[in-house]
Amino acid sequence: MTTTAALPNPLIAGFHPDPSVVRVGDTWYLATSTFEYLPGIPIHRSTDFVEWELIGHVATRPGQLDVENVPTAGGAWAPTLRHRDGVFHVVVTDAMGRGMLHFTATDPAGPWSDGDLLTVPDGSRSLDGIDPDIAWDAEGTAYITYSGLILGGPDAGTHTGIQQARVDLGTHRALEEPRSLWSGVGGMFPEAPHLYEIEGRWYLLIAEGGTERGHGVSLARADSPEGPFEAAPNNPLVSARSTTRPVQNTGHGDLVTGPDGEWVCVLLGVRPRGMTRAFSALGRETFVTRVTWQPDGWPTIEPVPLNPRPGRRVEVAFSPETVLDGGWIAVRSLPTDHADLTSRPGWMRLDADGSTLGDPRPVFVGRRQVHLGQRTSVTLDVSAGIGGLAVRYDERFHVEVEAGAGEIVARAVVGDLVQEWREPLSAPVLTLHIDCAPGSSAVSFAPAIHALHLAATVEEERIALAEVDGRFLSSEVTESFTGRVIGVYAREGMIDATAWVAEGDDE
Ligand code: 6LW
User: Fold this and answer.
1) 461 FRET partner, CA 20 to 30 A, in 160, 187, 195, 367?
2) CA distances (Å), 255 to each of 193, 403, 422, in order?
């Protein structure tokens, strides 16, 4: 494999946090978190660790996750993807939803199972924790290792460190009360445990320091999967804390051997921009870095290099043949719950249901923003309704260009603050534009590098509507686990959409 310095980084751009990777022969599969969006838990595949193809999702059917009713940032947190005896396994927490779940599939592209709850020994309730990992010892005993976190009830938010229990994967019940394992070297929020048997030793990799600027990856080892674990002498093995590195928040790692047999670590990171590199527009993305095993039996992990892929352009002419590819996502619902691709050939019809972008389940179908500098446009026919093009972080943070009922409205919603710019609309078919200014690798004092330019083209005339400070739509301001999603929505009546174009780069 080319060195990680030559690997593209981010490996998978746009909000794809909490990556977990598994190697099967000479093919790699990678799963990431999706929170309140569906379809849930995308599976990417690669045969060279450079190009990654989205091949499917774990959660594609109602009931697999209970995200329909989760609060913002609830839902699918931190899957672990593993493979054993021809079966793919995903363990994940449906936070504030179903609880800790175990999914299986023989084809990682799907279909996946309905998901079984991993419970305490008497089967009465889910194991209390997030970031579950699954590993087997030589006898086939299954170990679930997780970050103890109480998500509901009067003790919600209580962290209990890294926990582990042997589990019967037939009954999905723990076989014992959980035991506490090594929980790091003092960073807050020990989480994201992964257990590996490497050359006869058991290694426990965890994240600690929290998923913001203090994030890091630490390691310990033992002779047994149950410990006792001895900490590496050089923890955290990788962290961007207290550095000016362009990739920050690096943590939540998973180890695997690459095509050349060398070890690598996939992990999450952000690409903040601004005067103090404080605002990460895209949220937490998947990165990779190299691991080198040292003579003392401990590895070192390189700081995460930034090596953005070249810019790309995505064009979508909606038709039944382009049944919304897995890149399209919706909020607490599936894109196909909203998108009608047959009533008007070449157009995607959205029928409003009275919800708006401020509601938990808007009629909204979108794609992750994947470039710091991204220009997105869509052509709408609003002769029978009101709808638009939006950049969404969540119900309280979104910016949109909306058209219908004789006017065009640019709108910025930042918490309880709403600002609107209005123009008369002279024709029912128009193109809406949201251009996210290119991030600047240079430290810039101007918010311009975060500006969102809102515009509309009506009867071939482009009308500049507003420029909004994009720092408000960043993971730091919104305190979000997800990232920017740019999509089409309907607010009243019905709207038709076509000619979706998203292009950009990371210069
Ligand atoms: C994930 C945990 C975390 O379960 O955030 O901050 C949660 N770290 O590892 C969601 O990404």
Assistant:
1) 367
2) 11, 48, 51
**In residues, how long is the chain?**
507
Report ipTM for this prediction. Answer: 0.94
Give me ligand 1 centre to Cα 374, in Å: 27
Q: Which of 131, 162, 249 to mutate to test ligand 1, by most ligand atoms within 8 A of the CB atom?
A: 131
What is the pLDDT at residue 301?
A: 97
How far is the C-alpha of 8 from the C-alpha of 307, rounded, in Å?
5
Distance separating alpha carbons of residues 282 and 371, to the nearest angstrom: 8
Looking at residue 438, its pLDDT comes to 65
Strand partners, 420: 411
User: What is the model's pLDDT at position 446?
Assistant: 55
pTM above 0.80, yes or no: yes
78 lines ligand 1 (CB under 6 A): yes
Helices vs strands, H then E, count in the chain: 2, 37
CA of residue 90 relative to chain centroid, distance: 16
Q: Is 217 in the pocket of ligand 1 (CB under 6 A)?
A: no
Per-residue model confidence as pLDDT tens digits over 398-439: 999 999 999 999 999 999 999 999 999 999 999 999 999 864
For residue 121, whether the previous peptide bond is cis, meaning omega lies within 30 degrees of 0, is no
Cβ 192 under 6 angstroms from ligand 1: yes
Element (H, E) at 503: strand 485-505
CA distance 490 to 418: 19
Q: Is 295 exposed, middle or buried (0-12, 13-18, 19+ CB in 10 A)?
A: exposed
Residues 6+ apart with CB under 8 A from 51: none
DSSP letter (8 states) at residue 236: S
Structure tokens at 476: 């730091």
Q: How far is the CA of 17 from the centre of ligand 1 (A)?
A: 8
Closest CA to 18 of 48, 36, 41: 41
Q: Which structure tokens are listed for 57?
A: 């999702």
* Closest to 463 (Cα-Cα) out of 417, 404, 388, 401: 401
How high is the pLDDT of residue 447?
62
Q: What is the CA(252)–ligand 1 centre distance, in A?
A: 8
Q: Half-sphere exposure of residue 141, counting CA atoms within 13 Å on the CB side?
A: 14
Q: Which atom of ligand 1 is nearest to the CA of 191?
A: 9
Domains, in order of start, for the chain: 4-301 (2.115.10.20), 312-505 (2.60.120.200)
Q: Which residues, given as ranges, of the chain have pLDDT below 70?
A: 1-5, 438-447
Q: Could you tell me if 446 and 271 are in contact, meaning their C-beta atoms sit under 8 angstroms apart?
A: no
CA–CA separation, 300 and 235 (whole Å): 9
